[in-house]
């Protein structure tokens, strides 16, 4: 059996918070590579020393996933324009009126999704989320490792991110599991069948169909749970630590779900496969490990819309009636209508030729 603690949506935090520990893992230069390549090439265990008693502990982290992610058959890299679109769908008030859990599924038993933190940070700031100033979670890139059942409806997630160019990427101490078929009023069962205490993050403004609160639960990974249990934290310290660690991963879920929703549409998303064949031949001759193939995924919106929006927002305020309308979603059966963010006002600021995008599901 597993118990559940309920918390409102947390603010973003930096990265691992721990009880007086020092990371002894080796430093390595990761440069401008994709996060998936950094993880595949990371083989140093994550060892920490407790600054109180000097005990060494090996915790589950990036190196434990290097082989699995390197063998993953499906790896997606989101472009910045798609990150902005997914953020619009995930965090705008207008997107909260659509019940979509029945349309969601992971497209493979193992799946990798990554994106740029900078683009995501700008999107979150647009929607008023309080972010930690100069937090390490905004350096470099961010990714999520997903495992699911054959139907793609139940599974688990683990978040990874880069810290700096000189340090190896980190894995979150908190992992999540989900079941999109969870009935209202019940808890999803852990994907790995293991019990333990789990937490729920919910959105009070989306109580009518809060997919995050109904279908997802979060818990410490087992080695991190054992470590913190031995650390002698008070109840207050343990609660603060839990919210801190949960804040590093919970905000990923709405954007990830938006991506899976768009991916499931009949028209799909524009995709370009990157296999690095020529570059990898040069890397092998130089004794360097090859880079992993991945699929670059872009937003389906018209380029002219982005250009017109940028020009109009940069214009002067000579026309006070010109204003920006927030995007919103409407679902009708197997179709979702996305009323894209658009400008309303004087025609001299530019004409938005279309304001509606329709996605159809099988």
Summarize the structure in words.
The chain is α+β, with helices and mostly antiparallel strands and about 350 residues long. The chain folds into 2 domains: about 5-275, no CATH class; about 305-360, no CATH class. It has 10 helices and 18 strands. The protein has helices at about 35-40, 65-70, 80-90, 115-125, 210-215, 220-230, 235-245, 250-265, 275-285, 305-315; strands at about 5-10, 20-25, 45-50, 55-60, 75-80, 110-115, 140-150, 155-160, 170-180, 200, 215-220, 270-275, 295, 325, 330, 335-340, 340-345, 355-360. An 8-stranded mixed beta sheet has the order 11-9-8-7-6-5-13-12. The protein has a 3-stranded antiparallel beta sheet with strand order 2-3-4, with helices on one face. α3 (about 80-90) packs parallel to α4 (about 115-125) and α3 (about 80-90) crosses α8. The longest helix is centred in the N-terminal third of the chain and has 12 residues, at about 80-90. It is globular. Residues about 5-20, about 25-30 and about 315-320 have low confidence and may be disordered.
Number of alpha- plus pi-helical segments: 10
Secondary-structure content class: alpha+beta
The arrangement of helices and strands along the chain is EEHEEHEHEHEEEEHEHHHEHEHEEEEE
What average pLDDT do the residues reach? 79
**CA-based shape:** globular
| Termini gap | 36 Å
What is the makeup of the main sheet? 8 strands, mixed
Total domain count: 2
Give start-end ranges of low-pLDDT stretches.
Answer: 7-20, 25-31, 316-320
Helix fraction, binned, reads: 25-40%
Say how many strands there are.
18
Integer-rounded radius of gyration? 21 Å
Proportion of beta-strand residues: 25-35%
User: What spatial order of strands do you see in the largest sheet?
Assistant: 11-9-8-7-6-5-13-12
